[in-house]
Amino acid sequence: xxxxxxxxxxxxxxxxxxxxxxxxxxxxxxxxxxxxxxxxxxxxxxxxxxxxxxxxxxxxxxxxxxxxxxxxxxxxxxxxxxxxxxxxxxxxxxxxxxxxxxxxxxxxxxxxxxxxxxxxxxxxxxxxxxxxxxxxxxxxxxxxxxxxxxxxxxxxxxxxxxxxxxxxxxxxxxxxxxxxxxxx
Length: 184
Prior knowledge:
Layout: H1 6-10, H2 18-32, H3 41-57, H4 60-67, H5 77-81, H6 85-94, E1 108-114, H7 116-121, E2 123-130, E3 136-143, E4 152-155, E5 171-177
Parallel strand pairs: 1-5
Antiparallel strand pairs: 2-3, 4-5
Helix pairs in contact: 2-3
């Protein structure tokens, strides 16, 4: 078959209706059937390829599987997921990786109250944060002007500790205006 699709073998479009597929197959069979091939090996091979293509494309269930890009038989649930990129990503998320695999640390979220004026004009605040590998550190966080429009900040590798030599996660900081009741 030399990497030709079943549609190419029968000479039809991928959107072909079942009747069009049937007509194309019978037209090829009339020319390439072993009874009419007079021992021509190429014609007999074309007939075999056309018969395989017709057997798949004429059955709606087989055609759906073929059109999905998965050409193997479905024997396990895993086979269903491995047909598409989305399915492979889902499988990777559902099945935990091996215990020795590197795994990035979890991201952490920190809600920080800042004066409303700083969210409008920008400025710098200092906070004491726990480091991923233990200990504390005072860090200065620059708040850009008009931060109320996008009140998030990310500090890379300040999240949870990674496993087996993988980097720590990130720290996401959400700025929100200090309420009138809170006095810090």
